[in-house]
Write a structure and sequence with these properties.
mainly alpha, about 85% helix
Length: about 375
């Protein structure tokens, strides 16, 4: 059988209703043929059409597996022991089917992985070329030359269906790296000229600096002599200021001490007044709470007495209603005995009394 005939491999089931463990007999007879057919199949998993046929065949096997599962679940409804036997048979058969699925699914996945690896390798190469452009910034000539060399190495590859994209990326990256190279060469030349000009200016500045330093040295010596005199005068003035500051601090400390003592006395007075006020308020609250508790007690007692009176009245009303109902039903029964059953009045009255007193053992009068 060729791979194009795989749709014929599906196994169908007729679920018996006998409850006997014969459900898998028809499947077992087909399973041998299915295994033989599976062993003869050969697929080209790397070929799109062959891969598709292999997938179709695996799908058919999975349908058979699903059919076994459905049969197993339906058969297990009869009894637990019978269900265990069904599970054991289904497990064996499913294991065989899983083995056949695995036989074809592994090469299918291997073909997918090879294709993914091939595409990934191309994409990695293209992204590597793009990364060379992204990294090209303020770099020296040697670094740019190294990137161009790397670009040549990465581009030396068979990009297959991505060849047009690879060519476009390579041309763009090479153009920008060359442009960066040109800019870097021009920059280096400008820097050389700027360095020469800077060195000339530095020599001029050095000579000017030496002349200025000699002049500043003389001025500094004169200034230092004057500053020495000023410092001596300032030291004398500072000594006098420190003495005055010490006296000011002493007086301020004394004033602060007196202020703190006054504040403490005021705080004690305020705390005493606050405590007296709180005690008076607490006493007033306790008095109000006691009055409220007494009021609630009186109200509760009145409510209890009222509830007892209402309960008594309700009980008396219920008793009267029950008595009225008994009298009414007794009258109805008496009329039934006299009118419907044609019992004389005297006998009907005697029978009613016997029923009330329980003298008729097989009849219970509930009114």
């Amino acid at each position: 059988m060729t791979s194009s005939d795989t749709n014929s491999a599906a196994i169908t089931f007729v679920i018996p209703k006998t409850g006997q463990l014969t459900e898998f007999n028809a499947f077992r007879s087909q399973l041998a043929e299915l295994k033989k057919e599976n062993a003869s199949l050969v697929f080209d998993y790397d070929d799109p059409l062959g891969n598709k046929r292999a997938r179709s065949y695996v799908y058919t096997l999975r349908r058979s597996k699903t059919a076994v599962e459905i049969l197993r679940k339906d058969a297990k409804k009869a009894a637990l022991d019978y269900g265990k036997a069904v599970d054991a048979n289904a497990k064996t058969i499913i294991g065989d089917i899983e083995g056949m699925i695995e036989q074809h699914w592994k090469p299918i996945k291997a073909a997918e992985e090879r294709e993914d690896a091939r595409i990934s390798a191309i994409e990695v190469r293209i992204e590597s070329m793009r990364s060379l452009e992204k990294l090209a910034g303020a770099e020296d000539i040697d670094s740019l030359e190294n990137r161009l060399s790397i670009l040549d190495t990465v581009y030396d590859f068979d990009f297959q269906e991505q060849d047009d994209l690879a060519v476009a990326v390579e041309e763009q990256v090479r153009y920008r790296l060359n442009a960066a190279m040109s800019r870097e060469i021009a920059r280096v030349e400008r820097e050389k000229e700027e360095i020469l000009e800077m060195e000339r200016r530095e020599e001029e500045q050095r000579l000017e600096k030496e002349a200025l330093e000699a002049q500043l040295r003389d001025e500094r010596e004169a200034r230092e002599a004057l500053e020495q005199k000023v410092r001596e005068a300032e030291e004398r003035e500072e000594t006098r200021k420190q003495e005055l500051l010490a006296e000011d601090r002493r007086l301020a400390a004394e004033a602060l001490r007196l202020k703190e003592e006054a504040e403490k006395l005021e705080q004690a007075r305020i705390e005493s007044a606050r405590q007296l006020k709180e005690d008076a308020e607490a006493l007033e609250r306790k008095k109000a709470e006691a009055e409220q508790q007494e009021k609630r007690r009186i109200e509760a007692e009145a409510a209890r007495l009222k509830a007892e009176e209402d309960e008594r009245k309700a009980y008396e009303a219920a008793q009267k209603e029950a008595e009225d109902l008994r009298e009414s039903r007794s009258a109805e029964l008496y009329d039934h005995l006299k009118i419907t059953l044609k019992i004389p009045a005297g006998k009907a009255t005697a029978l009613m009394n016997d029923l009330r007193e329980g003298k008729v053992p097989w009849v219970r009068l509930e009114i």
